[in-house]
Amino acid sequence: MKKAVQIFLIIVCAITATMPLFAQNDSTNQRITLHKISASIIPPKHFIYDSITDKISHPGSLATIQINEVRNRNYKKITAAMTEKYMASQGFALIDKLETKMQNGDDAVIFRCKFKSHDDKGRELDFIRLLLFTGTESTIWITADFPECMGKLIERAITDCITSIQNN
Question: Between these two residues, 10 and 95, which has the higher pLDDT value?
Answer without folding.
Answer: 95
